[in-house]
Amino acid sequence: SVDAEISYEINVVEWYNQEGITFRTLDPFNEPTLRYWNVNGNQEGCSFSCPVMNTIIKKVGDSLDSQGLLGDISVSCSDENTFDQEFSTISCIDDNAKSYVSQYNTHAYGGTQRGELFNVSKLDGKRLWMSESGFPASGDMSASIELSEQILNDMRNLKPIAWAYWQVIEHIQPGIDWGLIGADFSNSSTFLDIRLAYYGFLQYTRFIRPGYQIISSNDNDTLAAYDAINQTLVLVCTNKNNISTIWNINVSMFNIGLFSTFRTSNNNEKLALLPNIWHIIDGWEHLCDQHRSVEILQ
C-alpha cells in the first residue's frame, strides 16, 4: 500500500540519519507517468496518477515532519523520464503539496521543454536537478560525443544546478549496457573496460568543480565555467564533426595567463595533455582541433 511504502522510505532515511548520513531530499517517485512499469519488472519505477502523487507528497512531508526530519530533509519530485513529462507533472502538483517540495528532478531522455522547466523552477523557488541521463556504451567516440552534446544543451537551456550520469559502472552483458566503465560484477579479478565516454565525461567533471559558475559562451559547442575564488576559467569544446574545426572564442573579459589543454579523441587520446596549441590574439582564443573530439582548456 501507499502508506506501507512511505513508512519504508521514512525508515530508510531515518536509519541513515542515525548513522550520520543525511539526505537533503527524498523523492518517492521514479518516472511515474512513463506508463512503462508493470508487475515483476526488472527496473526501478512505478506509475502514479497526478492526484495520487499529490497525496503521496503530502504524506511523505507530514511523515518527515512527525519524525523530526523535515528541517534536514525535504521532498523532491518527480524524476520524470523527459523534460516535457516533468514540466507536465509540476503543473499538476497543487500548492499544498509543493509546500513540502524543495527540488524538482528531471531525467533527460527526451522532450524539448528545457527552458520551460528552468522558468517554472525559478518561479516556484525550487532547485532544479538533471538527475539521470545515459547513453549505450560504444567502443569509439560516439557515446562520448552524445554525452557531451547532452551536457552542453542541458547546461545552456535547462540550467540545472546538478547534472548526474545514470550508470557510471555497469555489469557487462550481452546486448546493450550503459556504463562509462564496463565490469564483471561476478568476478572482481577481471579487468575494467574503461570506455572513451568515461574520459569524455571526465573532461567536464575533473575540471568543472562544485562552486564553479557556468557562464555564457559565444560558441554553441563550448561550455564555459569560471571559478571566481581561484580566478580559473574552464572551456570544454566538443567537435562532433568528421573534419577538423577551428575554434574562435572571445575571452577578452579575462586576463589569461597560464593554461593547460587536454583532449579525448579516437586517436588514442584519453584526457591527453597537449602542447600549447591555442593562440590568444586581441582577446580571442584560436584553435584548430581534430575531428570527433572533446577538448578542455583550463
Automatic annotation (TrEMBL):
This is 3417_t:CDS:1. InterPro entries: 6GAL/EXGAL, GH, Glyco_hydro_b. GO terms for molecular function: hydrolase activity, hydrolyzing O-glycosyl compounds.
